[in-house]
Amino acid sequence: MGPIPSGIGDLEKLTDLRISDLRGTDATFPPLSSMKKMKILILRSCNLFGKLPDYFGDMTTLKTLDLSFNKLSGDIPSSFSGLMDVDYL
């Protein structure tokens, strides 16, 4: 499988997205800023690299966030302080 399609961010009403074990080249985070109703977001082992996007802090209904086994760098954005309901990070 290749990278996460950029059009996935158009699914604004999606509440559960689980993608894992992608093969291929490294990729940046897909544009998910419009997915504010997300409750479960799992992007495990998706060859994602770089800094965490600020838009995660806008996903205020998020309960589960799993970004493990990627190539992340930089600091955790201050916007993550808005993730008050996260049970699993």
Structural description of this entry:
With 89 residues, the chain is mainly beta. It has one domain (6-75). The protein has no helices and 5 strands. The protein has a 3-stranded parallel beta sheet with strand order 1-2-4, with no helix packed on it. A two-stranded parallel ribbon has the order 3-5. The chain starts with 15 loop residues before the first strand and ends in a 17-residue tail after the last strand. The mean pLDDT is 92.
Question: Could you provide a short overview of the structure?
Answer:
Pfam families: LRR_8. The protein has one domain. Helices cover 0% and strands 19% of the residues.
Q: What low-confidence regions span 5 or more consecutive residues with pLDDT below 50?
A: none
* Percent helix: under 10%
The average pLDDT score comes to 92
* Number of beta strands: 5
Order of helices and strands: EEEEE
Fill in the keyword field for this structure.
single chain; 89 residues; mainly beta; LRR_dom_sf
Strand and helix map with partners:
Blueprint: E1 16-20, E2 40-44, E3 49-50, E4 64-66, E5 71-72
Parallel strand pairs: 1-2, 2-4, 3-5
